[in-house]
Every structure is written in structure tokens, then in C-alpha cells.
């Protein structure tokens, strides 16, 4: 925890008063379960709290930043910002992945790199920060770590490429669009899927992702960016 405290102080000027809150935020259930006799607390309750304050602050930011966007667009953008993969990215940016306490089995199976665990730890940290300080400090941290990427357009640029591809292809009538899994690599808890998009049986592009849906979106994106005229 000393190294983590150093990172927080050096990078974010944060010093926790209650060190136990910080330790709990970075303790995964697998570690707590392996040390039951020590009655160690894990981070699930803090994650619950952190998720709530994150949703509130990101909602407030988007509401003020985009006064003309309808509720539906704001909800979609918020969902992209606070989704598991995004939060895992923020956790890595903050070096949080280095400090999570995992059980031996979870560590061996690659848990330290799993988006679910990293995203949960990021939210748990926000919950701990709220309890140790106040919502203003949490807001400052979020604006320091997350908002620059939002304002750079990292999340607004994410589109529903499957719908976009369908609209482009079907402008002159219906066509047969199918997504086919080419390969699945990795253990069940950490698979990588590769999918290709087929139009009237012809491959227009392929993509990879941690889920079939993400791989399909990536395949559609690649097809759109490649230029449909040269593909059909």
C-alpha cells in the first residue's frame, strides 16, 4: 500500500486519512476469501458506492457540456464512458492494476488484467475517496483522470457501426448481412473473439473483441472505414 499511497500523492495530490478504506478498495473478493480467518473486507460495497457517485458526476458533466443533446444521446454517451472496458482503461492509466490484492488462483488465471476486476477496483476507489474526503474531491479526480479523454472525443466517436454499415449497404434495397465467428482464443473467462462480416456471402471486413458483440462492431467498423465501393 505504501507504493500506492506514493502514486496517489505524487500524481493526484491525494493523501488518505483512513488507510483502511484505501486497502479495502483494492482488495478483491478472491483475496478476502483466501484469508477468511483474518476477516479482511473486500471492495464490493465500495464499488456499489463508487458506481453511484460516478454515474452522478458524469451525468452532471454531460448535462452541462451538451445542452442541446437529447436524453437518449446523453444516456448512450454516459454508458460508453462508464462501461467496464472504459473504467478498466482508466484504472490502468492510474497504475491501479499493480496494486489490487488478488487470491492466488485469480492471480494465476490472469485476473490482474481482467477488465471486470480493474473496472470494479476503479469504482471502489471512488467510493473510498468519497468516504475519506467528499464529493468535491471525487469530482476533481474524475475531471483530472476521465474528462480529458471525454473532451478529446474518445467516447463520442464510438458509434453503432453495425447499424451504420446496414444503412450504407441497404440504401438501394435489402441485402443479406451476416456476422460469422472465425475464431475463439483463450480460456472461458477471458476469451478473444474474431468475427467477419459477410454481405451476400462476400467478406467485407473482420474484427476482434472480448465479446462477440464487440468483435461484430469492430468488423463493421473496419468494413465502413475500408470503403464499401472497393468491397462490393
TrEMBL record:
Keyword presence, Cell wall biogenesis/degradation: no
GO MF annotation terms: ribonuclease III activity
The protein's required cofactors: Mg(2+)
Gene3D superfamilies: 3.30.160.20, Ribonuclease III domain
RNase III domain residues: 5-134
Top-level taxon: Bacteria
Reactions mediated catalytically: Endonucleolytic cleavage to 5'-phosphomonoester
CDD domains in the cross-refs: DSRM_RNAse_III_family (cd10845), RIBOc (cd00593)
Domain DRBM: 160-229
A Pfam family hit: Ribonucleas_3_3
Cross-referenced SMART domains: DSRM, RIBOc
Active-site residues per Swiss-Prot or TrEMBL entry: 51, 123
Residues that bind Mg(2+): 47, 120, 123
UniProt entry tagged with the keyword rRNA-binding: yes
Localization per Swiss-Prot or TrEMBL: Cytoplasm
EC number, as in UniProt: 3.1.26.3
Enzyme class: hydrolase
Assigned keywords, A-Z: Cytoplasm, Endonuclease, Hydrolase, Magnesium, Metal-binding, mRNA processing, Nuclease, RNA-binding, rRNA processing, rRNA-binding, tRNA processing
Subunit relationships: Homodimer.
Summary of the function given for this chain in its UniProt record: Digests double-stranded RNA. Involved in the processing of primary rRNA transcript to yield the immediate precursors to the large and small rRNAs (23S and 16S). Processes some mRNAs, and tRNAs when they are encoded in the rRNA operon. Processes pre-crRNA and tracrRNA of type II CRISPR loci if present in the organism.
Listed name of the protein: Ribonuclease 3
Gene: rnc
Amino acid at each position: 500500500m505504501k507504493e500506492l499511497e506514493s502514486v496517489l500523492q505524487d500524481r493526484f495530490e491525494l493523501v488518505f486519512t483512513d488507510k483502511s478504506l484505501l486497502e479495502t478498495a483494492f482488495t478483491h473478493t478472491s483475496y478476502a476469501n483466501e484469508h477468511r480467518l483474518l476477516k479482511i473486507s473486500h471492495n464490493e460495497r465500495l464499488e456499489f458506492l463508487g458506481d453511484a457517485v460516478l454515474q452522478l458526476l458524469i451525468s452532471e458533466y454531460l448535462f452541462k457540456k451538451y445542452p442541446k443533446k437529447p436524453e437518449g444521446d446523453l444516456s448512450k454517451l454516459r454508458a460508453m464512458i462508464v462501461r467496464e472496458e472504459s473504467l478498466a482503461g482508466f484504472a490502468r492509466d492510474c497504475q491501479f492494476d499493480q496494486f489490487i490484492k488478488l487470491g492466488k488462483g485469480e492471480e494465476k488465471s490472469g485476473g490482474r488484467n481482467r477488465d471486470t476486476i480493474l473496472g470494479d477496483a476503479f469504482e471502489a476507489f471512488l467510493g473510498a475517496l468519497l468516504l475519506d474526503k467528499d464529493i468535491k474531491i471525487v469530482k476533481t479526480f474524475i475531471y483530472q483522470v476521465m474528462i480529458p479523454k471525454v473532451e478529446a472525443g474518445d467516447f463520442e466517436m464510438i458509434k453503432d457501426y453495425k447499424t451504420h454499415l446496414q444503412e450504407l449497404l441497404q440504401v438501394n434495397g435489402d441485402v443479406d448481412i451476416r456476422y460469422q465467428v472465425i475464431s475463439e482464443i483463450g480460456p472461458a473467462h477471458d476469451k478473444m473473439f474474431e468475427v467477419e462480416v459477410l454481405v451476400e456471402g462476400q467478406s467485407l471486413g473482420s474484427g476482434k473483441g472480448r465479446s462477440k458483440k464487440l468483435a461484430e462492431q469492430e468488423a463493421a467498423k473496419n468494413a465502413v472505414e475500408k470503403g464499401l465501393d472497393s468491397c462490393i
